[in-house]
Amino acid sequence: MSAPGIPLRWPAAWADPSLLRLVKGTAIDTLLVDNSDELEGVREAAPQQGLRVVHPDVPPDGVTVVKGEWPGVRLSRRGADADAGPTGVPWVDSNGWQVRLAKALHPDSAVWVEAAPPKADFRFRAGAYLTAVADAAAYGGRWLVTLEDALAADLSDEKSDAASIWKTIMDACGYFAAHQEWEAWEPAALAGVISDFSGENEFFSKELLNLLARAGLHYAVWPKDRVSEIRGVRAVIYADAKPPSAELRRRLQAFRARGGLVIQGQGDPYEIAQNTALRISHRYDLVRFWNAGAAGSYVSKSPDGKQSVAHLLFYANRAPDEASVRVAGKWSGWRASMVTGPVRVDGLRQAEAIEVHLPEVQQYVALELTV
Amino acid sequence: MTRREWMLGAAAAASARLARADAPASRVAVERCRTYDSAELVPAMERMFDRLGGLGRLVQGKTVAIKINLTGAPTYRLKYLPLEDTHYTHPRVIAAAAHLMGKAGARRIRIVESPWSTADPVEEYVLRANWEPRDIIGAAPHVEFENTNYLGKGRKYSRLKVPHGGLVFPAFDLNHSYEDCDVFVSIAKMKEHATAGVTLSMKNCFGITPCTIYGSGAGVDEPSLVPKGGRFLIHSGDRQPSKSAPGEVDPKAPREGEWRVPRTVVDLVAARPIHLAIVEGIKTMTGGEGPWVGEDVRAVAPGVLVAGLNPVNTDAVSMALMGFDPMALRGTLPFERCDSIVALAESVGLGTRDLSRIEVAGASIAEAKFDFAGMRRERQSRPRPRVGIRG
User: Fold this and answer.
1) Cβ neighbour number for residue A41 with a 10 Å cutoff
2) How far apart are CA B284 and CA B294, in angstroms?
3) Do the Cβ atoms of B20 and B346 come closer than 8 Å?
4) For residue A294, which residues of chain B lie inside 8 Å, CB to CB?
């Protein structure tokens, strides 16, 4: 069997093996099924459909599991209102930084994101599940598909609303499975973050990655023991408490001598993230959004450097209908797609960028760009 | 309206009648200008300034502060349009003004604004709007930006007193830039306004108040270090400014934005007089001051520039160019629910709004008029659309 693909946490209430029909022909290829007697039939029938069955607590070899947050605009205790962050914009929970860190630390592993829908006094809509899939997959991970109990029950009862949500999830999984090559593409970054991401440095370095993403700064994750020559970024943050080794110091000095910005030492990660974005300057923003609400982005490029993809994520329940996005670079061509298919967009070429006007879109749009 | 509000309004009206006769009147220049192309824009602005007696006598050897209008977040557009085509002062107008002032001998030109909820440099703020700040900084020698929404580069806030005692505030604590200048210029966008009816050169100065003192996140005793939120404090009077700054003249005055905002603007313009008022209406929007006002807003291209040495005169002419009667009072278009800034400004003697006393040079009002008023009436005749932010 090939490397683990897209996993589904099999709902405890789905004891009927005939429910395996739901995953037939989809991108789901791995089921996490518990050892209960009720699910014995499922465990037996699934391999006959070519599905891998694993225990939820024992992920297959070659998989790194990260515990994530349910992605989206953070919900208050009352459920309906959004919390505001320090800058007044909605506070977005995203697992992108965790996926990227896991991929950097375990480059030969697939990364699964465990983030179940939180208990709430409302039902999550299709867009929220699409966000969950895209927030992991855009960064090269896979969301461990986990359904609300009520959704699982409605699916087994063949209710149409539930079927519609399920179709959205499967469309999204299928879309990213069809673009697996993107997982190997290198991130486009303005800053590199160097750390061992462990021990006394773990909290600060991880919080920094999280907050750099919230500051809209595109970064690369560089484990300290694997840093070679520093190129391709405007700034480096050395995020460890102890001074760098002599060799790394030499590389940092060489980078600084070429005009690079080196930020060293620990402190308030929020301030360091915000100040880094300012010190680099918004002039060099890789992506700018307008009318996008709570949005995030990740840009990566093909090994030959001729193609890029800008993953655009819109975290609000209702995705935008008149958003504009500018992606820096000298692009000769562009096309946009959602998980349901191509999107027709108008593009304006600028001196060093392309500005694209999006129509009403879903929570995820891929903008494929050609140099 | 309460009895107290009625009495305050009646008193203002009585003083207005007294002040109207001798309120200053000076020439206002109007130019047609269809595009932001430098070949059309710069000569049009130069002609306009020449009609006012030339920039040289105003700025030569002087430090000039230019208040621009960057209302709202730089990531909020009307549909797909650049912000400068709808609700931000256009960067080419700012650059042209700086260029002409530099040519006229200005010693230093400081572009000032209090951007939404941030202490970031204005240069960084406008980059997010897709502007190139170097186009403005390079327009003349010694051009710089300053974010005036907080203490900024100053050591302390400057206290500027309101000569007439103040309709709402007796004095303001402002960023040093508003004191450290010889010449103060307001470059506004020609727009309607949800709270004040219209926003022109005087209303533009609402944004000179630092949100560290006058904003929702202002410190209680002392100014906060960085600004947070907008100026709801002034709109609603739900709290007083930081105690380090002068409080309201009458803390029992109405708590209604439509009463408070026009009066506060008049106090600000009296405390920080405008030497040159410029209203930019080449491209703008109708229905409000920004896309957040509602879905019944749209982009328009009046193709007009206005300038004058008296902001009340300039705004009165601008209102006429928009199809509004500058003599209108509360209850009348465009002041259906608010008091008139130009009437209040006239009442304290800042300038006349009486068009019969204002000389208009260049294009006539009839030639350059763009009918905001007609569009407003048409909107009001339709059912009100839903208001909200998507995304």
Assistant:
1) 14
2) 16
3) yes
4) 391
For residue B219, the one-letter residue type is G
Nearest to A289 among B75, B79, B118 (CB): B75
3-state secondary structure at position B242: coil
Please list, in sequence order, all residues whose beta carbon lies within 8 angstroms of the beta carbon of residue B331, skipping any fewer than 6 positions away. Answer: none
Question: In sequence order, which residues have a C-beta less than 8 Å from that of residue A10 and are 6 or more positions away?
Answer: A31, A32, A33, A34, A39, A42
Contact at 8 Å (CB) between B167 and B160? no
pLDDT at position B390 is: 40
Asked if B341 and B268 touch (Cβ cutoff 8 Å), the reply is no
What is the spatial order of strands in the sheet that A110-114 belongs to? A63-67, A110-114, A142-143
As a whole number of Å, the end-to-end CA separation of chain A is: 37
3-state secondary structure of A96: helix
Q: Give CA–CA dist A135/A168, Å, rounded.
A: 14
Report the gap between the CA of B231 and the closest CA in chain A (Å).
Answer: 14
Which of A291, A313, A358 has the highest number of chain B CBs within 10 A, making it the mutation to test binding with B? A291
Q: B117 contacts in A (CB within 8 Å)?
A: 87-88
Burial class of A43 by CB neighbour count within 10 A (0 to 12, 13 to 18, 19+)? middle
The SS3 call for residue A90 is strand
Q: B183-189 and B63-67 as β-strands: parallel, antiparallel, unpaired?
A: parallel
Mutation site, B85, B122, B123, B128, interface A, largest A CB count within 10 A:
B128
Structure tokens that stand for A132 in this block: 């969950």
In angstroms, the CA B232 to CA B212 distance is 12
- Going across the sheet that includes A235-238, the strands are A219-223, A191-195, A235-238, A261-264
3-class secondary structure, B95 = helix
- Partnered with residue A328 across adjacent β-strands are A353
Query: How many CA atoms within 13 Å lie on the side-chain side of A303?
Result: 3
Q: Which segments within chain B are labelled E, that is strand?
A: 28-32, 63-67, 108-113, 143-147, 158-161, 171-174, 183-189, 191-193, 197-199, 276-281, 284-286, 298-300, 304-308, 360-362
Tokens 């506070």 appear where? A91
pLDDT tens digits, one per residue of A321-346? 999 999 999 999 999 999 999 999 99
Closest CA to A10 of B178, A80, A41: A41
Say if residue A275's pLDDT is above 50: yes
Give the residue on B whose Cα is nearest the Cα of A291. Answer: B76
Cβ count near A246 (within 10 Å): 7
The model's pLDDT over A160-190, given as tens digits with 9 standing for 90+, comes to 999 999 999 999 999 999 999 999 899 999 9
The model carries a pTM of 0.93
Instruction: Give yes or no for a cis peptide into A303 (omega within 30° of 0).
Output: no
Nearest to A282 among B77, B127, B390 (CB): B127
Say what the pLDDT of residue A84 is: 36
Residue B87 amino acid letter: H
Q: Which of B77, B79, B80 to mutate to test the interface with A (most CBs of A within 10 A)?
A: B80
Residue of A nearest to B126 (CA): A282
The set of residues, in sequence order, having a beta carbon less than 8 Å from that of A162 and lying 6+ positions away, is: A151, A154, A155
**Dihedral sign, CA of A55, A57, A63, A65?**
positive
Region B260-285 average pLDDT = 98
Q: Judge whether residue A243 has pLDDT over 80.
A: yes
**Cα–Cα distance, B140 to B136 (Å, whole number):** 8
User: What residues contact A86, with CB distance under 8 A and at least 6 apart?
Assistant: A270
φ and ψ of A216, to 5 deg: 80, 15
Whether B130 sits inside 8 A of A292 (CB atoms) is no
Nearest to A293 among B120, B124, B391 (CB): B391
